[in-house]
């Protein structure tokens, strides 16, 4: 991002084009600009859950730099093999990073 206008445009694109699904997870969106009081902030939370697995992305403009920050959380229960859970979570994180870069 080079300017505040770029950041605002990206956040507007996100708000106008909430994905129905990401990485196979149906998505629920929460726009924190719609909150009232001290919890109101310029951020969008995208989350989804299937069974015991879940994802969460929080996208918001940086307060100090001309960029949008993206926080990614992937949760996968370890049923038998923690290595398989880590590999799966890594694949999902990569897909979510690619989505965030292309908003």
Model description:
The protein is of the alpha+beta class. The chain has one domain (4-101). Helix content is 32%, strand content 31%. The chain has two helices and six strands. A hairpin with a 2-residue loop joins strand 4 and strand 5 (53-61). It is elongated and about 45 Å long. The termini are close together.
Strands, helices and their partners?
Blueprint: H1 4-16, E1 21-22, E2 25-26, E3 28-31, E4 44-50, E5 53-61, E6 68-75, H2 82-101
Antiparallel strand pairs: 1-2, 3-4, 4-5, 5-6
Q: Notable features of this structure?
A:
103 residues; alpha+beta; four-stranded antiparallel β-sheet; two-stranded antiparallel sheet; elongated
**Helices and strands, in N-to-C order?**
HEEEEEEH
Shape assignment: elongated
Give the rounded overall mean pLDDT: 93
Radius of gyration from CA coordinates: 15 Å
Topology, number of strands? 6
**Residue runs with pLDDT of under 50 for 5 or more positions:** none
Q: How many separate domains make up the residues?
A: 1
* Straight-line N-to-C gap: 12 Å
Strands of the widest sheet, in order across it, are 3-4-5-6
How does the helix and strand content classify structurally? alpha+beta
Which strand-content bin applies to the residues? 25-35%
Number of helices: 2
């Amino acid at each position: 991002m080079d300017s505040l206008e770029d950041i605002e445009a990206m956040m507007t694109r996100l708000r106008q084009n909430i994905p129905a699904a990401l990485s196979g997870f149906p998505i629920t969106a929460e726009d924190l600009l719609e909150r009232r009081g001290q919890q109101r902030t310029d951020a969008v939370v995208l989350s989804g859950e299937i069974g015991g697995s879940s994802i969460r992305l929080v996208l918001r403009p940086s307060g100090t730099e001309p960029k949008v920050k993206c926080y990614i959380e992937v949760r996968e229960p370890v049923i038998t093999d923690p290595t398989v859970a880590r590999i799966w979570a890594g694949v999902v994180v990569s897909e979510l990073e690619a989505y965030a870069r292309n908003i």
